[in-house]
Amino acid sequence: MQSNTESKTAGQMIVDYFRDFGVLKETRLEYWAIQIVNVLDCTFYFALLTIVTLFLSEDLGLNDVYAGYATAFFTSATSLMLFFSGLYTDWLGIRKSLTLSLLAMLALRLGVVVVGLTPSLPHRGLLAGVLLALMAPFMAAIQTVFQSACRRFTSKRSRSAGFNLWYLFMNIGAAAAGVSVDVVRKFLHLHNVHIFTMGAILAALCLVVGLTMIRNEEQVVGPDEPPGSRAEEAKVEHKPPWQIASEVFREPALWRLLVLIALIIGVRAVYAYLYLLMPKYWLRTIGPDADIGLLNAINPVGIVIGLILFIPLANKFNVFSMLVYGAMVSAFSLFPLALPWRCFSNDIGRAHYLMAIICMVIVTIGEVTWSPKLYEYTAAMAPKGQEGTYLGLSLLPWFLAKTLVSVFSGHMLEYWCPEKVTVHGASVPLQQAMIHNQVPYWHGPAAMWLVLGLYALAGCLIAVSIRGWLTRGARLSANPSVAQ
């Protein structure tokens, strides 16, 4: 009898979850325009992350180390620009900053296409690296525009549903990115550079959507909010960037947020491994026909399902617990990869497919648990007119993680997962050497994942140990939109 009641309660919570999306009728056309741009831009963004090191190596001839350095420069520039992109968004407003960023991205993506399709150009690797670095400030700006717009174009009552739906659309774009990579590489047999061709087309479509559908930038307020507060809430003051920065850095809560962000960088790095390490790792352990796009699509597809089924239950728990313990789950996702591959199958390709699927399922459970809550909680803390700045800071763990991973990715691949290894004086493919047990554990891919998993887990354990300081002065309830 008790289990029937519990089942009914859980079912009712899921029904309530869908009913909650009904409050999105309080949003305006601008919210849905942003979600269209979100899906289209994320399709290119995640496809870029999947193929960037492969593009630099396979199309332009850079080795693992130099491809890693070029990617590191690109992601480092994005990280540095992230805070300033928030100031830029708050200063210029959503429509202008989105339009300028998309125009720049359209031109730069076309530039990469020209470099990739012109073999006679000298120093193509360097030229592509410069173009990628020039994309950085505009990529950062687009990300902060998305989150600032989600706050601006939703009312207090619809904000939680609005952020959940934004995160769902982002992962739909990520799933489409995985499919597009395999379509370009395996079915159309085109060079990786045509991911940038797709990106240019999508940027043009995003421009059309933004220019035709985004007109009103005032804060959306619900009909049940007091008249006095509605007028005050709807008014948005665009302050100069230096004034915004001065006010933000005087907030004590900001520094606690930055410490928490620093501690979860190792966990955010797990998601960077999916794009910067795993494509080459899969091609070298499974084989050259590995479905790298399909494997990377498992995570976003799982996120979409998880947001529908798990979020209603997750809202019953404290936001800090959701962040830290969900991050721990993501950290544990790397440990199946650290096991000897013969634990899964005697066929090395099948074994690594199974390891990849288990890893993706675990990392997806962790991400559903904690990642959307970081964005929503940060948005709830942001003062009016500073949404872009605070939300830009909430993205720092992702971009910083990519920077750190990119710097060391080439070295990690060369040491633990090279294309070929030397056995008895002869150079043989890594997969062949692994089949014949000619690769010691501490010099093979499994050791790489063990080290990286322990690093990710350590930050979570430190966060738990200083929980009192990290949560000092904050009212962290089950629903982060209440804990403002």
What does this structure look like?
By secondary structure, the protein is an all-alpha fold. It has one domain (25-220, 235-470): MFS general substrate transporter like domains (Growth Hormone, Chain: A, Up-down Bundle), CATH 1.20.1250.20. Helices cover 74% and strands 2% of the residues. It is built from 21 helices and two strands. It has helices spanning 2-20, 29-59, 64-92, 94-116, 124-152, 159-187, 194-213, 227-234, 241-248, 252-263, 265-276, 278-285, 292-309, 311-314, 319-332, 348-381, 387-394, 396-416, 430-435, 445-465, 467-470, and strands at 420-423, 426-429. A two-stranded antiparallel ribbon has the order 1-2. Strand 1 and strand 2 (426-429) form a beta hairpin. Helix 2 runs antiparallel to helix 5 and helix 13 crosses helix 16 (348-381).
